[in-house]
Amino acid sequence: MTATAPRFRDGLLAALPLILGYVPIAFSFGVAAVRAGLSPAEAVMFSIVIFAGAAQFLALALVGSGAPVLVSVATLAAMNLRHVIYGPALLERAGAAARTRFSWAWGWCLTDEVFAASLGALARGQGFSERFVGGLGLGAYLSWIAGTALGAVLGGEALADWPALDAALGFMLPALFLALLLSILERRQLPTVAVAIGAAAAVSLAFSPTLGILAGIAAGAATGTLHRSPA
């Protein structure tokens, strides 16, 4: 780590856009969890233990539909499998000098948005710092828990008078992630992105969104690898 490496405080400041996006979505999850029959404490524990927005909403749907535990666990694991590659991909982009002493801590907070924001910082030449990623991830994590608690405490009828807002909150998480990715997208990456999107859309329509996510990851990774390979 160099003397000019971004600090923990810089990570917290960089987390502000994520916090603005996370709090209302987590609020919506807290409301949905209470509607599904969970207590406020159980809803908050969901966010503390899982910390994966889309997966948490899916978990509520699976539990509410009476799906078997093993099926629910397998579905959620498949949906979140992409997180396994975030740490290695970030460290590869950071270079050989990147430290991993506290990777067990900041790796927990590598959601889609934290990962994208970290890549954005590297693309802007800020360098890699465990303190920076830790501050970024901690800010996102705490805001998700706080938003869940607020929605759970206010109860299942908190958004009853604003159905349009209730529906719109579901689009904020993917919109936030897309905005972060677009900010660091380069022209040479467009073919990989196009293949990943096409594969995800096709498999989602033909089978299920979970398989679509996995197909998009696999197709994007394969295309990116081939694209980078020397002729």
Layout: helices, strands, pairs:
Layout: H1 8-14, H2 16-35, H3 40-49, H4 53-64, H5 69-79, H6 86-94, H7 103-106, H8 112-123, H9 130-154, H10 163-168, H11 172-182, H12 190-206, H13 209-228
Helix pairs in contact: 1-9, 2-3, 2-4, 2-9, 3-9, 4-5, 6-8, 8-11, 12-13
Task: Give a description of the structure.
Helix content is about 70%, strand content about 0%. With about 230 residues, the chain is mainly alpha-helical. It has two domains: about 10-185, no CATH class; about 185-230, no CATH class. The longest helix is centred in the middle third of the chain and has 25 residues, at about 130-155. The chain is globular, with a radius of gyration of 18 Å. The two termini are about 35 Å apart.
What is the percent of helical residues?
Answer: over 70%
Give the overall silhouette. Answer: globular
Task: Work out the helix count.
Answer: 13
Biggest sheet record:
none
Quote the average pLDDT: 80
Over all CA atoms, what is the radius of gyration?
Answer: 18 Å
Gap from first CA to last CA: 35 Å
Name the structural class. Answer: mainly alpha
Strand percent estimate: under 5%
Topology pattern, helix = H, strand = E: HHHHHHHHHHHHH
Count up the domains.
2
Number of strand segments: 0
Low-pLDDT segments, ≥5 res: none
